[in-house]
Structures are given as C-alpha cells and as structure tokens.
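Help wanted!
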Amino acid sequence: MKKDEKPYHILVIEDNLGDFVILEEYLSESILHLEATHAENFKEAVELLEKDDQVYDLVFLDLSLPDKSGEELVKEITSRAEEIPVVVLTGFADLEFGSRSLALGASDYLIKDDLSPAVLYKSLIYNIQRVNFISELKDSKKKYADLFQLNPSPILVYDFETLKILDVNEASVQKYGYSREEFLNMDLKDLRPKEDEAILISAVEEFWKKNGKNYKKISRHLKKNGELMDIERSPAKIKINNKDAGMVLINDITENLKYIHKIEEQNQTFKEIAWIQSHVVRAPLARLMGLVNLLESSDDNLNEDNQKLIEYIKLSAEELDAIIRDISKKSEGIYNES
Amino acid sequence: MNKELIIIDDDDILLVILKKMFLKINPNLKISTFIKGSDALTFFKNSTFNQPPTILVDLHLKDLKDWDFLDKMENDERFRSKVFIITSSVNSENPSKSKRYKNVAGFFEKPLTFDIIQKINQLIVESNPN
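Answered by r_m:
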C-alpha cells in the first residue's frame, strides 16, 4: 500500500510506553512523515497542549493516567485541545465509558485490544477531516450570522401568521431605539402608526400571495421615541423552524423624501416665477412698446430731439423685451423637462 | 356698411392704444372694447350683427382664463367671427393650441405693430358678409 505522504503531528497521552510504541509503529505503516509526541501523564499533556508553538493534528488519549482518569480527564483534555480531535483509547472493561466520552467532547474512541494499523489510520483521517468540516461549518454559520447581525441596514424577521418579531439585527436596535428584548415582545403592527394598521395587513397579504420578487414598498414606521420615519421595505420569505417567516430589510428614506419635497417646492416656486416672467412682466412692456408705436406715428410734428428720445425709449423697451424672451426660453426648457 | 371690430383685453391702457392704432389705419371701423370677457359674451348674445364682427382677444383675461372665451364661443352656432388672439406671453406652445379652434385666424404676440394692425385690417376689409 502506498503511504500517506502528508506530514502528521500527533500527541499521544499514554502512561504505558509499550502501548505508545505500538501505536507509533502501527501508524507509521500508513504514514510516511509521522511526528508522535509522547506525554506520560496528565500534567505533561497539559504542558504540551498549552505550548503555543505546538499544533497537533490529533490527540490519542489513554483513559487511565496516574495523575488523572475517567470523565474528568476527558473533560480537561478536550477543553484544552480546542479544534483538535481527541480520540480516546479504552480497554474492554471501560467499553461503556468509551461511548460516554463522546458526549464529553471526544471525537471518537478505540478499543485498545482491537487496534490495528488500518483501524488507527482510518480513525486518524476520519477525525481530522470531521473536525475540519465542523470548523468550516462554524465559520460559514458565523459569516451568515454576521451578514445579518452586522448589516448596516435594519433587518426584521417576523412570523408570517402572528406578525410577531422573531429576530432583529443591531442596526434595527440603533435605528428604532428599542432593545432586542423589547423588539421580541412586539409585532409588526407596533411599528406602524395606528392609522396604517390596515395598510400593513393588506401589504403582508399581498406580499405572501404574490411570489414577491423585487417587491419594494414605501411606508411609515414609528421609532420608540414616537418619531415617524418614511421607510422602504424589501421583504423576503424564509423558513424558521419550518414556519413561514418574513425577513424585511428596512431603508430609512425620511431625509431623501424631505429633500425631494424641498426640491419640488422650489421647483413649483420657480414655475410661478417663470409664469410671472412670461405673462405678467411682459404685459406692461408690451403696453409701453405700443405707446411708443403711437407716438412715432403721431400727426403732431415732433422736433428732432424728441424724435431721438422716442427712439431711445423704443430701443430700451426692445432690449428689455429681448431679455424677457431669453429668460422665458430658458424656463420653458425646465418646464418641459419636468 | 362699416366693418365691426371687438377688442377684449383686461389691460385698459392697451385697449386705448389698440383702438387708436386701428382707427389711424381705418377711421371707418366700428370698434367696441371690453375689459371683461363675460361682458363681451353678453354683448354677443344680445346683439344682432349684419355680419359677424372680427374679434381680437387676449388669452389671459382675469375672469375667463386661457381658452375659456374661445371654448364658450365655439359652442355657439351663430358664432362665425374671425378671431385674432393677442397675448403678452412669450410661451411658444400657445400658437399651436390655437389651431384647434376653427375660428382662429391668427395669433399675435404683443405689442402689435402698425404692420400687424395693417394686416388684420386688410382681412377685416376683405371679409364678405355671409
């Protein structure tokens, strides 16, 4: 059989030197680069495990050591061998305890009298992989929990039937002012102003009836201090303990809406100015120009000086007219865009 | 028979100006002026004309906004007058809208120059009784 070429570093906690030698020999049959560190008692094992520069792939633990044994020994070792699989070695007499050790944190147990190179190697590989897998699972679980918990937008999870709030993230606590515990005693209705309750019920129904993809709605939510927020809700359907739940991402758009309203108001004022410009200001000017027309055609003979003055009035009026037309043209462009 | 012209504009000074200008071009015109659109409408209802008078009307009357005057006149079957719209506004969408009304014969921005008055007078004089 081809040997495993990966290097392994194991810790064997075993007071019987003979057993240690056999174990090392057996494993060496399958593993090319095996480094086996030997601890003869609990005290030595603890020292070795607490050294920071030593990283073990796996720990073999004999159940009876001169200075500690049984349940207490398993607990002490597994708590120190964080993320390292601990395989308990037990005799026939302790068979029952072997299986109990799994509950105490051991990864596996082997019966000493049954040891063979194949069994040992298989146990070593299996338990190393299992621990790797578990720690990967933990990492990814934490990653997803962080996505929820550390998300900068408030996220609420609620029970579809009762509308009770099941979970909130930190951003929700910051935004609404309720503590997590307060949230968990509330339902979605408590976040709405009284008069919006009917809207909420129909909105929830609508969302659950439709397969609400890209469903986004604007509504109002109350903070704990009574302040009203304009919010945009992006809900999604999830399952929690096999029950339908909604997960809603909240976007506070109060400031954005205020800003838009302000611009709309200003735009309205601007339109009014444009109208005044186009209609009202120009009326007296048109009158003025009409009067100049009449004066020019007057039958009375005006002297040259006065004719010149009328000419100047006319020029000034025309200049003003050109300005008004220019402004009107510009404001028309804005009219048409809005 | 003297041709008739009705001018409706809520700017009383402008009424004086226009009346003077028209009479300068054509002293034979019979001109009535109205500041209120409603007064002009009443005048129309209560008068009989040998031939339909020509109308010069401002778009923005205080009592009849925008196209109200034309809308009201359009509904009257007897209404066969030529209408010239005058406006002090320089809002370019107005002329195209005036084409919806079959009586509208022209659209002019104020001030009306003697050239324009001359043109309008020409149309009034040439119009035949029908």
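OP: Thanks! One thing I noticed: The mean pLDDT of chain A is 88.
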